[in-house]
Prior knowledge:
Number of helices: 11
Strand content: under 5%
Distance between the termini: 51 Å
Number of domains: 2
Amino acid sequence: MGAVTERTALPDAGSSDLRAAADALRTRLPEPLSALADIAYNYRWSWTPGGHELFAEIDPERWELTLGNPVRQLQEAHPGRLQDLSTDERFLERVDTLERAVQTEGAPPVSPRSAASPTRSRPRGRASPSIGCQRRNKFRKLVVGPMCCQPRTRVQGY
């Protein structure tokens, strides 16, 4: 019996779930914006220059209300606004640029810091789904994990 490696034990773990979620989100978007569904489920958008600005441009107020969550932003965006953006050439070019940056396999994130020190092959930190939450909700207690952006609630009697 051969050695069990991470690659053999968990080949593409969770990738089919992410594809299914992106496919479901894609049904809500006009065809020219369909790439946003894949981008929203790939954390690379969050450290790629222009990622936050692109999603915020869809609806700045909703972007703040969703705490910078691109999936919720797209789920809750007004269909008329999405239709308007699907005909905006400048916006579509930015979507295409972000999609290429996010899809680039194994490339280090593009940032001013990595440009200043080209010898470093990868970022020092790691991506976390709660990074955006911590920056935006500094006055809330946060839980770690999928519910990171939800404030803790007190159960009566405890």
